[in-house]
Amino acid sequence: MEVAAGKYAKAGVRGITVWRDALEGRDPAAVGALLKDHGLEVVSYCRGGFFPHTDAARRQAALDDNRRVIDEAAALGAPLIVLVCGAHPGQPLEESRRQIVDGIAAVLPHTEAADVKLAIEPLHPMYADDRSAINTLRQANDVCDQLQSPSVGVAVDVYHLWWDPDLQREIRRCGEGGNLFAFHICDWKIPTTDLLLDRGLMGEGCIPIRTIRGWVEAAGFIGFCEVEIFSSHYWSLDQDTFMQKITQAYLEHS
Amino acid sequence: MEVAAGKYAKAGVRGITVWRDALEGRDPAAVGALLKDHGLEVVSYCRGGFFPHTDAARRQAALDDNRRVIDEAAALGAPLIVLVCGAHPGQPLEESRRQIVDGIAAVLPHTEAADVKLAIEPLHPMYADDRSAINTLRQANDVCDQLQSPSVGVAVDVYHLWWDPDLQREIRRCGEGGNLFAFHICDWKIPTTDLLLDRGLMGEGCIPIRTIRGWVEAAGFIGFCEVEIFSSHYWSLDQDTFMQKITQAYLEHS
Questions:
Q1: Angstroms from B209 CA to nearest CA on chain A
Q2: For chains A and B, what is the number of CB pairs under 8 angstroms?
Q3: pLDDT tens digits for A42-72?
Q4: Which site in B32, B87, B123, B185 is 20 to 30 Å from B96, CA atoms measured?
Q5: Are B129 and A205 in contact (CB < 8 Å)?
Q6: pLDDT of amino acid A1
């Protein structure tokens, strides 16, 4: 964490999203202070969610775990938690979707008390098996409409949503509802060789990142454009080189 | 082809879709006769499409090639051509979508003269980069509405469409429009390790095949349930064993 914070700051990066595994065994408040000392704004805490399960006890355990995530986010000083909502392959997607709405509603009081917000991240349909039953921005917007809470919004990630013919319209709707909480960028490589860990740097693929960023900003979003590149390839490189490539790609292609 | 025809017939399979590469260097009419002799109905010819391109000459070449596909289908005795519509990563999806509609419209007279039909197969969003800009059944239905031709319909493949929250409604719409021309089944494995060649046998994954088949039949479809399993794993097995697994999975899970 110390190394990352130092290098982010040196590269001119002004914000960071903290993944939960990076906090393991550490004091969230101390990590938050460390990041602040490096001039880094904590954009969000990643991740809560995974509400659906065929077993009620496991659904209850997920609620308890999400409350812990909320406490950690608050201690860290993260204003936002990204939700990967979950899906259970042993039940219909419709049932998982109901359980997601119920799950978010159940942790809402805890969220509000902790003064953090929740961002539903619609995931690409290729993750509908066991990662998220929320696969389009329309679905995420529908959940926001259903819950009607200022604490619940959406994280728009171009990797998950770029293919959607309704994307521009749903981004507008998301903004109008005051629900556009986060924006993630990377690129879709051709070919993509792994379903999880083969994301591209901006400019390496076919996602019209600038177009989508334009829609997001036209919808009123003024937050960070967060670069999120899951990639076995890039993670195996020298990480200073990777950081350099990221900042260059960010400036040239987003 | 002789081996496949013999084994399909012996396994009690009554229909077959012929892929274009299997016809290479062969006389389509003779292959059609061979299949008929084995009691096999030719369900469709696979595949036409790939209309979009940034270069007009390449779009023209695609039209010419699709006319050849139509001629081959007619000679083979296939009543239907499956269209993988294409997408060009060098242009916006919207442009590729326009070129798909234009491309189908351009080959329609040739299609009608040859007395074959065209089935638009919406492809999973993970193929929106360079395989198809038509990624939902709603989009395919919209194209059918736009073209208003009895020769243009849709191939519904559970692998591509199972995740779609609008699927039941759009299947109904597809049937009401008289556009439900083909139905393909297989399963989505968890985890899926390859974007193209890791499909599962029915029952091996999380797709509610029987539910979707019910929707398709309720929409008036009375054609073949075609098993389509692209899989490096299964293709590497003894193919008699694979055939046995397919027929068993078909009976138990579809």
A1: 11
A2: 71
A3: 999 999 999 999 999 999 999 999 999 999 9
A4: B185
A5: yes
A6: 87
What whole-number distance in Å separates Cα of residue A212 and Cα of residue A156?
A: 10
Length of chain B: 254
Q: Under a CB-based contact definition with an 8 Å cutoff, are residues B172 and B131 in contact?
A: no
* Residue B242: Cβ within 10 Å count: 17
Q: What is the pLDDT of residues A158-174, one digit of tens each?
A: 999 999 999 999 999 99
Tell me the three-class secondary structure of A57-73, residue by residue: HHHHHHHHHHHHHHHHH
Tell me if the bond preceding A191 is cis, omega within 30° of 0: yes
Dump pLDDT digits (tens) for B219-247: 999 999 999 999 999 999 999 999 999 99
Of the candidates B128, B163, B206, which has its C-beta nearest A163's C-beta? B128
- Please state, for a pLDDT cut of 70, what percent of chain B lies above it: 100
- Give whole-number Cα distances, A217 to A35, A135, A222, in Å: 26, 22, 7
Q: Which residue of B has its CA nearest to A92?
A: B208
Contacts of A124 in chain B (CB under 8 A): 125-126
Q: Can you list the alpha helix ranges (DSSP code H) found in chain A? A: 2-10, 20-23, 28-37, 56-76, 93-114, 137-147, 158-161, 167-176, 209-218, 232-236, 239-253
Q: Give strand pairing partners of B187.
A: B200
**B134: closest CA of chain A, how far (Å):** 9
Residue B80's nearest CA partner among B107, B117, B130, B121 is B117
Which strands form A41-49's sheet, in the order they lie side by side? A15-19, A41-49, A80-84, A117-120, A152-157, A180-185, A225-227
Question: What is the rounded end-to-end Cα distance, in angstroms, of chain B?
Answer: 26
Specify the higher pLDDT residue, A2 or B46: B46
> Given this model, what pLDDT does residue A198 score?
98
Q: Do A165 and B128 touch (CB under 8 A)?
A: no
Asked if B163 lies within 8 A of A208 by C-beta distance, the reply is no
Whether the CB of A101 is below 8 Å from some CB of chain B: the reply is no
d(CA A191, CA A212): 21
Cβ separation of B206 and A163 shorter than 8 Å? no
C-alpha B143/C-alpha A165 separation (Å) is 13
